[in-house]
Amino acid sequence: MKIGVVGCAGRMGQMLVREIAATPGCTLAGGTERVGGPALGRDIGELAGLDPLGVTAIDDPALLFAEADAVIDFTSPAATERHAALAAQAQTVLVVGTTGLNPAQQASLVQAASHTPIIQSPNMSVGVNLLMALVEQVARTLGEDYDIDVLEMHHRHKVDAPSGTALGLGHAAAAGRGVALEDVWRKSRDGHTGPRPAGEIGFATLRGGDVIGDHTVMFAGDGERIELTHKASGRGIYAKGAVRAALWARDKTPGLYSMRDVLGL
Known about the structure:
This protein has helices at residues 11-22, 44-47, 61-67, 77-90, 103-112, 126-142, 164-177, 181-184, 236-248, 259-262; strands at residues 2-6, 27-32, 57-58, 70-73, 93-96, 117-120, 147-154, 185-186, 201-207, 213-221, 224-232, 255-257. By secondary structure, the chain is α/β, with parallel strands linked by helices. A seven-stranded parallel beta sheet has the order 3-2-1-4-5-6-12, sandwiched between helices. A five-stranded mixed beta sheet has the order 8-9-7-10-11. Helix 2 links the parallel strand 2 (27-32) and strand 3. Helix 3 (61-67) packs across helix 4 (77-90) and helix 6 (126-142) packs parallel to helix 7 (164-177). The two termini are 24 Å apart.
């Protein structure tokens, strides 16, 4: 399977290139970087710390989508929206790890998925997606007698809060309770907030240091507390999951899928 990477010279892009090169049944179709970027024209393998792969970084994503069987995107919401349109036009599988899309951008992905398989997940880690499945099951079992809070910590450079993964865990908890997260969430607490409303799903956000990603979902009831936690010690887990998703989607019909579909959860 020929897999391309947009943003191939970035930290995540380099990890994806190394994972594609190391995975049987995969070959690197190419990669893109921004117009005028210093990586343009350089061998993508060398950019990722590998031996030369004979493929150079380009600045035209349309060419990449025309060449690749699948493209992996961990870029920005605006760029992902453009890439979804290109994927639909070329009928190329698109794996999206980008978070922070607004409703209009998300709608563009849904529209593009009517023409090609798109796998979108706020976190491509196998472990995190198992955690989401567990959170949904626990929330369904315990009911509203238990208060739910999602605590997350990331490095000081992360730009969105709560993280996409934290929101994904919140959505899993809400699904377990049969409600929409937007109707019950509390993204922050400050000042005199009064008693906690029944059924509320809260979020707490920490930023600092070089933390890759820590997530804990707490179910607090009378007399006991249940905590489900995932801690990432390396970003390679996201690359492994993304490549696994691309391989899974190679024979799928058009549609918007998630990592839970990939993992059979």
